[in-house]
Fold:
Amino acid sequence: MITLELDFPDGRTCPVLIGAGAHQELSARIPERAQRVAVVTQADLPVQVETGRETKVFLIGQGEQHKTMSTVESLCSQFAAWGLTRSDCVVGVGGGIVTDVAGFAASVYHRGMQVIHVATTLMAQIDAAIGGKTGVNLAQGKNLVGTYWQPSAVICDTDLLLTLPKREWQCGLGELAKYHWLGGGNLDALPIDERVAACVQIKADIVSQDERESGRRAILNYGHTLAHALEIAGDHQLRHGEAVGIGLMYAAELASLMGRIDGDAVQEHRRVLAGYGLASELPAGSDNEELMHLMSRDKKVLDAGYTFALLGSTGVEVVKNVDPVLMREALEAVRPSA
Ligand code: GLY
Structure:
């Protein structure tokens, strides 16, 4: 088992347990004072968790369309009807949708209670469950409402990845590809537990310095600005990781048009994405103006114009006031040829 820690300047820590069979560590991680555990999960997940406490399971629906305020409200009402108290514990068991929603509900129910995540997908293990971002979508955009709420522990059982549906695994690879340019390099050469741990370590180092994204944390959104727009434009037919793959290619083309990287670096994006079996072109029929409009609603835009995480000579960094003319040009560069 690999154990990593997120260490925050104020002394808070969040252990992340990574390895085969790690979900069996859950009961030992439930806070002693908790008498009840609310397990938030989805139907048909291939894992049963043992909490060692009085436990009730609360199911949420499958798919981004359930990542909403009304799901959070419904969970909180059910917690209240059961009599969950602030000293009890919420456990989110699932992928990123579950950990985002369970984390949000835990952060607002009784003004905040402990939450532990048992991340069951590659996407959740290397990104969504790590770092304390919670959130839900609005019709206007992804993750537009949420909180920062650190879990007391995150458990990444790599055995659970063996049974992931192919598309779900592929989605995780979109997020994994992002870490290639955040210092991870050739992660596909590593055994799975070390691969997950390498991503968690990169994220832990960034998040522990900038928990509330006042600066550097935004580089974790490499590839995400277009990705979020594509997800909304396609009504979530394109899954998050698939959209991130295209968003990474777009970010490379944009960086190249801005003179930040050369053609070799753009080709490297194409090669890495192809190596992971990820698409790097816009879905057929994508509308530039719709994507531009959706990207204008990105959370980062409000104070600094169009803002992107972009590669440059010193790595990925946050770049403000990006020229919309170049953004449109970069959209053409990732459009499939007719
Ligand atoms: N997924 C980006 C972040 O957690 O900051």
